[in-house]
Specification:
Layout: H1 12-25, H2 32-38, H3 43-71, H4 73-96, H5 101-111, H6 114-129, H7 135-165, H8 167-188, H9 201-217, H10 219-231, H11 233-248, H12 253-281, H13 283-308, H14 313-327, H15 333-339, H16 345-395, H17 400-413
Helix pairs in contact: 1-6, 1-7, 1-8, 2-3, 3-4, 3-5, 3-6, 3-9, 3-16, 4-5, 4-6, 4-8, 6-7, 6-16, 7-8, 7-12, 9-10, 9-16, 10-15, 10-16, 11-16, 12-13, 12-14, 13-14, 13-16, 15-16
């Protein structure tokens, strides 16, 4: 049954393990910042902690794929688990106890290396072991597990846990959940992975650096990285200005937060849907029409619907749910880019993972850079235009099958001289 829905049989427990790990990682996401401010930190200091956390996530994401090829997925994931535990425990013990701001910066930076090494290494494992015709579905299942754990289960669990355990003890339980996830992904998951055989340390270093050098040697992988950055622009850019825009048209903060959850419910569901559609309709077609063109239409529509409907929660929910679903239209990029990387799938995944982290910086930067010049409305149209650009880029990323057809057509066109 697992094979039919796109999950490689021997990796089934790994998906469940990733969901539990990300549930643990997402426990404090919704309340840590206000808790730190209430405990004596300034808003700027709290923001700085999350900034260094984002930097470590981006760095860890970049090297997660190539680390799988050099060290194997289980070792890399175990390293991610260990780093997460050290960072979290250090943050709680040495940071909270004295509200030591420099220690908080350091330990939360360390914690940020944890989940990409664990989750994205498993994604690379999935890419290697899944048949080509089921690859998009498998990637969809990964993002379903990832988002369900981090954005739904983690938030849901913490909303109850903090009432009975308090904030600090709730954060301690994150270590329990990531360890349970690791048992499923590393112990119960019996799949074997054959890492690359490297003759010496020099070869190992060369492999690790492929996460960078592939950008130069394979332009199609680099183009895929650009598309992955564009994919999440509205997701990370909207929070900069959309809550204020909604409030101006009658949708207050509490309602906005509920709406934002509704939008991501659509995203989680359609991570699966577009995984299957990608395998049937074609990876590139799915990304171009549902991801690129779909987001280009619904990103500005989400901005305008509260204006047109006088702040209708129902209409904004519907449009936002569709928008969240269309953002998931880029799911097949996780199948497309490794397919054009040949034997360097790990390096290709490193680029995609880094691009996912990079969008958390690029999106707010675009919003902040242009909102003073063209306003929030203009920023929305910049995002929309970039989605169209991403569709055009994907159109010109040729997969191996297209290369073969092109070569056959060229061979037929060459006259045979006897």
């Amino acid at each position: 049954m697992l094979e039919k829905i796109g999950i490689t049989k021997n990796l089934g427990w790994g998906f469940f393990g990733v969901m539990l790990f990300m549930m643990g990682d997402g426990i404090e996401a919704g309340w840590l910042s206000p808790f730190l401010v209430e405990s004596g930190l300034t808003i700027q200091q709290s923001a700085a902690i999350f900034t260094v956390y984002g930097v470590s996530i981006a760095l860890s994401s970049w090297f997660s794929g190539v680390c799988v090829e050099v060290f194997g997925p289980k070792r890399t994931m175990a390293l991610g688990l260990a780093v997460y535990i050290v960072g979290t425990a250090g943050f709680i013990i040495f940071g909270f106890s004295t509200m030591n701001y420099p220690i908080m910066l350091l330990t939360y930076f360390i914690k940020g290396f944890g989940y990409p090494l664990f989750a994205y290494s498993f994604l690379t494992w999935v890419i290697y072991k899944t048949p080509q015709n089921k690859l998009s579905s498998a990637v969809g299942w990964f993002w379903f597990a990832f988002c369900a754990g981090m954005m739904v289960l983690g938030a849901w669990y913490s909303s109850y846990a903090i009432q009975y355990l308090g904030y600090i003890n709730t954060m301690w339980t994150s270590i329990f959940w990531v360890c349970v996830g690791a048992i499923f992904a590393l112990v119960l998951n019996k799949d074997k992975f054959e890492k690359k055989k490297l003759a010496n340390k020099k070869e190992a270093i060369t492999e690790l650096l492929k996460g960078i050098t592939i950008l130069k040697t394979n332009k199609r992988v680099a183009a895929g990285g650009v598309v992955r950055v564009i994919n999440s622009l509205s997701v990370y850019g909207f929070p900069v200005f959309l809550p204020m825009h909604m409030a101006q048209h009658g949708i207050e903060t509490t309602a906005w937060l509920q709406l934002w959850g509704t939008f991501f419910l659509g995203n989680i569901i359609f991570n699966l849907v577009f995984g299957f559609i990608g395998d049937k309709f074609g990876w590139k077609n799915t990304i171009i029409w549902f991801g690129g063109i779909g987001c280009a239409i619904f990103t500005p529509l989400l901005f305008y619907v509260p204006v047109i409907t006088n702040g209708s929660i129902l209409m904004t929910s519907i449009v936002g749910f569709i928008w969240g679903g269309l953002v998931a239209g880029y799911v097949p990029i996780g199948a497309l880019v490794p397919s054009v990387a040949g034997a360097d799938k790990g390096a290709a995944m490193s680029v995609l993972n880094f691009a996912a982290g990079l969008s958390t910086f690029v999106a707010p930067a675009i919003a902040l850079a242009f909102i003073g010049l063209v306003g929030a409305e203009g920023v929305v149209w910049i995002f929309s235009a970039l989605y169209v650009v991403s569709a055009i880029i994907v159109k010109f990323i040729r997969v191996p099958e297209e290369e073969e057809e092109k070569n056959k057509a060229r061979d037929k066109a060459v006259p045979v001289i006897s």
